[in-house]
Structure formats: C-alpha cells, structure tokens
Design a protein that fits this description.
Layout (H helix, E strand, L loop, with lengths): L23 H6 L20 H7 L4 H5 L2 H15 L4 E2 L6 H5 L4 E4 L3 E4 L17 H4 L1 H13 L4 E6 L1 H10 L7 H9 L1 H25 L3 E5 L8 H17 L8 E4 L7 H4 L6 E3 L6 H6 L6 E6 L8 H15 L4 E5 L9 H13 L15
Parallel strand pairs: 1-4, 4-5, 5-6, 6-7, 7-8, 8-9
Antiparallel strand pairs: 2-3
The protein binds coproporphyrinogen I (1CP).
Coproporphyrinogen I binds next to strand 3.
Length: 370
C-alpha cells in the first residue's frame, strides 16, 4: 500500500505579521546575523509554570487544546513570564492522531496511551483522510488568536513520523522502542507506508498552522535517536524528506529535532530543514562540524543543569553560547523543560543569552583584561 502526498495550494497571502520578518528567531534560523542570540525553551508552556498548572487543574490536556482561549492563554504565559523570543503553540504531537479518529488518551504521569496499538497493514486504514480544518479546527483558531496577540513569532509543530509510529505501535511511551524497531525490520513495507501516512498528517497539520499565522515550524522527532544511521536513512529519512518538501513553498523556517541523535546529525541534515535541534550530549562545535557549513543549530543546555545553582547554570549556558558561535544559533535546552524547573532560572537564562556578546565571549560590562 502506498500513500501519496497531496498537492497543496499556496494562498497568496496569509496572516503572518510583516513586522516579524526581522525577528531574531527567524533570522537566526535562516543563518542571518542577529542583534542578540534568540532563545526559547521546548516545553516552556508546560508544567514548570504555575499559570499552566492553574489552567490544568480545571481542564485536561486535550480539553485545553480544544479550547482556543485556554490554549492561547497557556501559550502566551511563558512569553510574558520569561521574555523568550518565540511562543510555541500549546498542543501535543498526538493531537492530529486523536483528531484523525485514533482512540488515544494522555494519561497523567505516563503520556499518550493508544487503545488498540498498530500491528499490520490493515491498521493503515485508521489513518486515512486527515483534514486539519475539518478535524482539528480548534488548532487553527488558537493560532489565529495568537497571531493577533503575539509580538514574537509563533512556532507551530508536528510529531515526526518515527516518534508517532512508536506511540501507535508500542501503544504508549517506551524507552527501548522494541516493538517499533522489530516491526521496522520484519515488515519494512508496512513500516514505510505507516511513516508516509504519518508524514502526510504532519504536513497537513503544519501547513494549517502556517496558514493560520505560525511563523516557524519544528518537527519533533524526539525518539529517532534509538536508530542506527543506516536504518534511519533507509526507513525514516524518505518520509521525513517528503515532510520538508511539503512545507517548502510556505517559506517559513523549519527546525528538525531529536534526542540522542549525535550519530544521525549528518543524515538528518539531508531531510531538508533549515535548522537542526541538538540535545545536550553533543557539544555545539562538534554538532556544527557534522552539519553542512552555515546550517543553523538550536540547543543545547542540559535541562537537568537548570535544576542546579545559578552559577553552574550560567557557566554551562555560556559554554553553549561560546561553542555555538555568533551566527545561526537559537539558544534552547537540549530537550524539554523539566516540571521541577524554577521559572526564575529560565528568566535569568533569557537575560544572560540576550546580554551575551560574542566578540569577547563575555557579558557586556565585564572588564576585559588584555
Ligand atoms: O511548551 C509546551 O509545553 C508546548 C506544548 C507541548 C509540546 C510541544 C506538549 C504539551 N507536548 C509537546 C510535544 C510532545 N508531546 C513531544 C515532543 C517533545 C518532547 O520530546 O518532549 C512528545 C514526545 C510528546 C508526547 C507526550 N505528551 C509525552 C511524553 C511521553 C513519553 O513518551 O515519554 C507526555 C508526557 C505528553 C503529555 C503532555 N503534552 C504536553 C504537556 C504539557 C504534557 C504533560 C501532561 C499534562 O500536563 O497533562
């Protein structure tokens, strides 16, 4: 069975604010010089913020996502509280799957759980015909609200095909992704068709977010780092290339992110994104050396470092900035903010990154002894 990506229409205008063209985030993702290094945090809207926990005490995750006012409120909170250079839409990578009719639940303390895990080609029927405007109109509505309110770019996103396939096949979170890898080896044609179907859903979902007003996109392929490079190229890269191909005419910068991808970075660069997100295991200068010259990078402070005293956070953040260099770098953590993180630490990090000057590798006002 094969899935063809639809041919998409590009409307002449869509509601991205013209003032944002020079936003540091968008310039850095395109490898252009910026007045300061832009910074945002994966999972910045989540459980580390009391604003989120207050909303969450009244509504489930999916209820928030399906209520544009609440979803917009939760998206905006970290922009005001932390002073970051971008908002990330409050949603989850599993939202389009649920909207496409997959019976799934976000179980508190666990994550996404699928009622009937995928086992073979017959299951592909369950993913047919996702239409973002018809099946998840609340997402576009949230994005429209945000595009009107925000003064920083809004990052839209989707889950990568391997990561979503893993939830569908395992039935829930997994550390080893054993069933997924096993199915990839034993039923490669089914696996490829599944990833292609998920790629189609990712494209449809992200296109709808851009048409509603998102200014940048991130593909969260969080768990792809469990694969060896050859399997990645053979089984995951083709579907991923079709995702970035399916977004190119929109002309918004794209980020491709995964955890534990040190050995895959060079191959991931061939997927066609503008930037690569790097986790904390690979020093930024080594990451750059594995990527085509000039490709933008995002990352990569260890989220656990943020739990320590400010002096160690600061020292590690300065090292990330120094190794990443002045151009084409978006500061972020190497993975999502941990729930126990003190938002004041994130706020101080934003100030540190914004005040950093590359020329002397020092903060402004620091005495330079020659
Ligand atoms: O800033 C934000 O919090 C933005 C919203 C956001 C994003 C970008 C959520 C809300 N989820 C995501 C993406 C997401 N969801 C990813 C990719 C990012 C990453 O690698 O962390 C993944 C893998 C998921 C799947 C998922 N959803 C998990 C992980 C489970 C596992 O396999 O270990 C969990 C715990 C969820 C639930 C969830 N999604 C979002 C939040 C705030 C939560 C926590 C639960 C809750 O508040 O009820």
């Amino acid at each position: 069975m094969s899935f063809q990506l639809a041919v998409y229409e590009t409307p002449a205008v869509y509601p991205r604010s013209a003032d944002l063209a020079d936003a540091p985030l968008l310039r850095a993702l395109r490898g252009l010089p910026t007045e300061h290094t832009p910074v945002w945090f994966m999972r910045q809207a989540g459980r580390s913020l009391s604003e989120y926990r207050a909303v969450r005490s009244r509504a489930s995750l999916f209820e928030i996502v399906r209520s544009p006012d609440l979803a917009a409120e939760v998206t905006i909170a970290p922009v005001h509280r932390l002073g970051v250079d971008a908002a990330i839409l409050f949603s989850d990578i599993t939202v389009p799957l649920a909207a496409a009719g997959i019976d799934l639940e976000i179980v508190p303390g666990v994550g996404p759980v699928i009622a009937q895990p995928f086992r073979g080609p017959a299951d592909l029927e369950r993913l047919r015909g996702f239409d973002a405007e018809r099946d998840a109109p609340y997402v576009s509505e949230t994005v429209r609200l945000l595009a009107r309110e925000l003064e920083v770019p809004l990052i839209g996103f989707a889950g990568g095909p391997f990561t979503l396939a893993s939830y569908l096949i395992e039935g829930g979170p997994s550390k080893t992704h054993t069933r997924t890898r096993s199915l990839m080896y034993s039923q490669p044609d089914f696996f490829r068709a599944l990833l292609q179907a998920l790629a189609g859903i990712a494209v449809a979902s992200m296109r709808a977010q851009v048409l509603a007003g998102a200014s940048a996109l991130q593909l969260f392929e969080s768990w792809v780092g469990v694969l060896d490079p050859v399997s990645f190229s053979r089984h995951v890269l083709p579907a991923t290339i079709s995702i970035f191909d399916g977004l190119r005419d929109l002309d918004v910068p794209t980020i491709y992110f995964g955890v534990g991808t040190g050995e895959l970075l060079g191959r991931m660069a061939g997927a066609g994104s503008d930037a690569l997100g790097v986790d904390w295991r690979v020093p930024m200068d080594s990451a750059r050396a594995r990527l085509p010259q000039g490709m933008a990078v995002q990352g990569n402070l260890d989220p656990v470092a943020c739990l320590g005293p400010w002096d160690t956070v600061r020292a590690q953040a300065l090292e990330v900035l120094r190794l990443a260099g002045p151009r084409g770098h978006v500061f972020n953590l190497g993975h999502g903010v941990l729930p126990e993180t003190d938002p004041d630490t994130l706020r101080r990090l934003v100030d540190l990154v914004h005040g950093y000057e590359h020329r002397n590798d020092r903060l402004p006002g620091t005495l330079v002894v020659r």
